[in-house]
Amino acid sequence: MILPPPPDASQYVAAQSQPVPVPVPADPGGQGEDFGKSSPLGFLILVLFFVAVAFLIRSMTKHLKRLPASFDEPAEAGKPAEGPGKADTEGSPRA
After folding, report:
1. Per-residue confidence at 88, pLDDT binned at 50, 70, 90?
2. Considering only CA atoms, which of 94, 1, 13 is closest in space to residue 86?
3. Statement: residue 86 has pLDDT above 60
4. Three-class SS of residue 82?
5. Which of 31, 47, 79, 92 has its CA at 20 to 30 Å from residue 61's CA atom?
6. Regarding predicted confidence, which is higher, 88 or 44?
7. Cα 36 from Cα 27, distance rounded (Å)
């Protein structure tokens, strides 16, 4: 079996000393000259969202003002407060 001659050392060093070119992407990810600039349409949509949020806050405030301070029924003076299951069992026989 015949082996090829060993590579010359000068070829080996020359191959390592050359820099490998870094591939540059063709598309820079949408960062052209207009990157980061907003259009007047985008500004109009943003203003409309702020107006809608203001109306929603106003409406929610009106609804919250209409709510009672407490949803508990006031207890009568001579009768203790009953639990949720005790009101239906007053006339029924006990087992």
Report:
1. low
2. 94
3. no
4. coil
5. 47
6. 44
7. 16
